[in-house]
Amino acid sequence: MKSIFLIGFMGSGKTSVSKALANILHINVIDTDELLEKTYETTISDIFAEKGEDVFRKYETSILKQAPTANTIVSTGGGIVEREENIDWLINNGSVVYLETGWETIVTRLKEDTTRPIWNNAGRDKQKLLEERDLKYKRTADVIVQTDGKSPDMIASEILGVLNL
Ligand SMILES: Nc1ncnc2c1ncn2[C@@H]1O[C@H](COP(=O)(O)OP(=O)(O)O)[C@@H](O)[C@H]1O
Ligand SMILES: O=C(O)C1=C[C@@H](OP(=O)(O)O)[C@@H](O)[C@H](O)C1
Ligand SMILES: [Mg+2]
């Protein structure tokens, strides 16, 4: 089985749904953000604060390209589509699922969040970022699943129903 890569905006549920999928399929799950923090022995917040977004994106690309391309569920970071080379790599190496999520749902889910530097950057227009990235997620994905009003388990079952595994 080709590995399944979950893409989508911050708060679309990539990390949560990846765990639900791995539980159902009994296969390994990795999260590019968690692996990045382990590999570079730091936190995402610290990388953004000390080195900036460009360095984070370089690390993220390197982690993505080391991901197993078979028998694994991979949860990516919301900005994985910011680099064209990541989009190409995903299209060529995985079954890619876009967790499409409305703005209001994202705002509700991330109300309490303090761990996402871009979400917590008051100077950035996150709603516009969602609109821009939405086109890139759609260009990259093999299948699109809507997440509004559904639990991670429901979304995982729906993904398995639409993917040809
Ligand atoms: N389908 C869902 N329904 C309700 N809450 C969700 C759902 N998916 C994720 N969440 C919650 O939203 C927040 C962000 O989820 P997370 O899985 O980390 O998203 P992502 O990895 O896409 O940023 C977490 O608090 C999580 O518990
Ligand atoms: O959208 C983004 O640019 C980011 C999303 C985060 O992952 P999640 O999508 O899992 O929140 C994380 O990679 C980092 O904070 C940057
Ligand atoms: Mg995540």
From TrEMBL:
Keywords: Amino-acid biosynthesis, Aromatic amino acid biosynthesis, ATP-binding, Cytoplasm, Kinase, Magnesium, Metal-binding, Nucleotide-binding, Transferase. GO terms for biological process: amino acid biosynthetic process; aromatic amino acid family biosynthetic process; chorismate biosynthetic process. It comes from the Bacteria. It catalyses: shikimate + ATP = 3-phosphoshikimate + ADP + H(+). Binds 1 Mg(2+) ion per subunit. GO terms for molecular function: ATP binding; magnesium ion binding; shikimate kinase activity. Pathway: Metabolic intermediate biosynthesis; chorismate biosynthesis; chorismate from D-erythrose 4-phosphate and phosphoenolpyruvate: step 5/7. It is an enzyme of class 2 (transferase). Mg(2+) binds at residue 15. ATP binds at residues 11-16, 116. SUPFAM superfamilies: P-loop containing nucleoside triphosphate hydrolases. GO terms for cellular component: cytosol. Belongs to the shikimate kinase family. Monomer. This is Shikimate kinase. It comes from Aquibacillus koreensis.
